[in-house]
Amino acid sequence: MQTGLLGPLRQKIDRRSYLVLVAVGLLTPLLVWWAAATWGGADPVFLPGPRQVLQRVQVWYHDENLLDDLSISVLRVLAGWLLSVLIALPLGLYIGTYARVQAVLEPLTDLVRYMPAVAFVPLIMLWIGIDEQAKVAVIFIGTFFQMVLMVAEDVRRVPITQVEAGQTMGASRRELIEKVILPSAKPALLDTLRLTMGWAWTYLVVAELVAANSGLGFAIIKAQRFLQTDKIFAGILLIGLLGLAMDQGFRLIHRLAFPWLHRSA
Predict the structure, then answer these.
(1) Which of 152, 149, 151, 137 is nearest to 83 (CA)?
(2) What is the CATH number of domain 65-261?
(3) Cβ-proximal residues to 94 (8 Å cutoff; 6+ apart), any chain
(4) Which tens digits make up the pLDDT trace of 215-250?
(5) I need a labelling partner for 138 at 20 to 30 A (CA). Which of 56, 72, 168, 263 fits?
(6) What is the CB neighbour count within 10 angstroms for residue 219?
(7) CA–CA dist 179, 190 (Å, integer)
(8) Around Cβ 35, how many Cβ atoms within 10 Å?
(9) pLDDT averaged over the chain?
(10) End-to-end distance of the chain based on CA atoms, in angstroms?
(11) Whether the Cβ atoms of residue 216 and residue 238 lie closer than 8 Å to each other
(12) Which residues contact 203 (CB under 8 A, 6 or more apart)?
């Protein structure tokens, strides 16, 4: 059977091939960037090379409190995301389980999720102020409404036959939720948490527009004012690396919690 360059459809590949392809996918853009900065004739002010960016990271680490910026940004992202999780999980569960709750809450959630989080910044500053709570609120708004709808959809994907089987066996509503719906939806729910964590990181810079004096987003904005393009690149890459590390952590948890979903066919 001919498989072509892309390989067979929807089949797993061995670990070694996977790692090689991951390396190709990550290193190719880096090499293109290095070549463009080195031989492309671009002004380093507009396109610094990887070496310049790495040097900037070293200066940032030794002289400009990089670890403080990293830690405060991670705390802000986690606080906003965890607040979303605490409220969105039960709310999405009820929306996905009960049609009447869905009718009342889903259209409103759909409406608000299309409103850009940055548009709420003036109201957040007016109502909450400019302290840490305001920055957490921006990340919360950016992730909460999407998370609610995704959780509800994960719950609705639980086969109705499983629910009907539980009802036939005399399970109460609480037992249906705790012993049928939640266990069946857990893999999808964990994927939803992983995806929304990525959104939380994308709202970090917006959150740190709210009168911040520390954090990766603040450092990027400050660097823009002084045309420190190498620091802008460094900040963006650091956010990407932190997000990638968290994403891989979620994937590892998923593989450990649900190993049967990751076995080769």
Answers:
(1) 137
(2) 1.10.3720.10
(3) 101
(4) 999 999 999 888 899 999 999 999 999 999 999 999
(5) 56
(6) 26
(7) 17
(8) 11
(9) 89
(10) 18
(11) yes
(12) 80, 117, 138, 139, 142, 143
Residue with tokens 């520390």: 214
Judge contact between 208 and 217, C-beta under 8 A: yes
Residue type, 131: D
Contact 126, 189 (CB under 8 A): no
Q: Note the Cα 106 to chain centre separation in Å.
A: 22
CA atoms within 13 A on the CB side of 65: 11
Q: The whole model's pTM is what?
A: 0.89
Q: How many other C-beta atoms are found inside a 10 Å radius of the C-beta of residue 148?
A: 27
Q: Per-residue b/e over 40-64, b at no fewer than 16 CB within 10 Å?
A: eeeeeeebbbbebbeebbeebeeee
The answer, yes or no, to whether residue 36 has pLDDT greater than 50, is yes
Q: Around Cβ 130, how many Cβ atoms within 10 Å?
A: 12
DSSP output for 145-202: HHHHHHHHHHHHTS-HHHHHHHHHTT--HHHHIIIIIHHHHHHHHHHHHHHHHHHHHH
Torsion over CA: 150, 159, 249, 34 (sign): negative
- What's the pLDDT at 4? 64
Between CA 71 and CA 133 the distance in angstroms is 16
Query: Is-contact 183 155, C-beta < 8 A?
Result: no
Q: What's the pLDDT tens digit per position in 72-106? A: 999 999 999 999 999 999 999 999 999 999 999 99
